[in-house]
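> forwarded from #structure-qc
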């Protein structure tokens, strides 16, 4: 890993890379940030995984079943973004226009190369109330983005979706990565599923001249 970083050409003015938890490096002239995500191994049968859920989570899943929620794999990206657009902009899960364009491009690419999946949860009235985007990397399934409506939040739709994903992929050599960029309500949910928090390094080197950074910032504004 160290040799890889040394081989990065000096003309690269900005570097922002994350490395896996098994690699720990120190590199002069860069900022190294500690980040976290949650991991849940799905090799066990579903019943054993279910037993490791918290009692609170099991009760929420029972309530969701009574409300006749339904999970569907293969929803369209349009449905996901429509659900996002209906959120208030103050909602921590709301994705703004610039990031939305990037996410649309990523979803499109993942579909083209068969490494992305979209899941949706519909309520008893067949209204989409939660949607999630997963990407696959080898034996890892990574929850990259989730959007939850107010109704979905009340009916524990996100819990129901993750439980469904675990159920259909249990008994396989798969690790479910539940990532988060900032503390929000789903972080505690991950713990309820029995997922383990894991640290990794985010390595950043910024040698862009200050004047260029100020110009770029003004252009974004």
């Amino acid at each position: 890993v160290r040799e890889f970083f040394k081989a990065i050409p000096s003309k690269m003015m900005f570097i922002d890379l994350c490395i896996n938890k098994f690699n720990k490096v120190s590199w002069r002239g860069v900022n190294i940030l500690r980040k976290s995500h949650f991991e849940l191994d799905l090799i066990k049968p579903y019943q054993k995984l279910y037993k490791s859920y918290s009692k609170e989570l099991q009760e929420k899943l029972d309530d969701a079943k009574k409300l006749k929620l339904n999970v569907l794999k293969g929803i369209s990206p349009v449905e996901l973004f429509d659900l996002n657009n209906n959120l208030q902009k103050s909602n921590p899960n709301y994705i703004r226009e610039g990031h939305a364009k990037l996410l649309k491009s990523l979803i499109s690419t993942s579909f083209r190369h068969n490494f992305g999946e979209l899941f949706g949860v519909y309520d008893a009235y067949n209204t989409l109330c939660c949607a999630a985007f997963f990407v696959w990397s080898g034996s890892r399934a990574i929850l990259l983005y989730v959007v939850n409506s107010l109704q979905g939040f009340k009916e524990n739709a996100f819990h129901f979706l993750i439980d469904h994903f675990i159920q259909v992929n249990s008994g396989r050599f798969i690790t479910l990565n539940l990532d988060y960029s900032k503390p929000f309500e789903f972080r505690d949910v991950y713990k309820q599923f029995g997922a383990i928090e894991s640290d990794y390094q985010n390595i950043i080197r910024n040698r862009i001249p200050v004047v260029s950074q100020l110009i770029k910032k003004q252009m974004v504004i």
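QC bot note: The chain has a mean pLDDT of 87. Residues 97-112 form the longest helix (16 residues).
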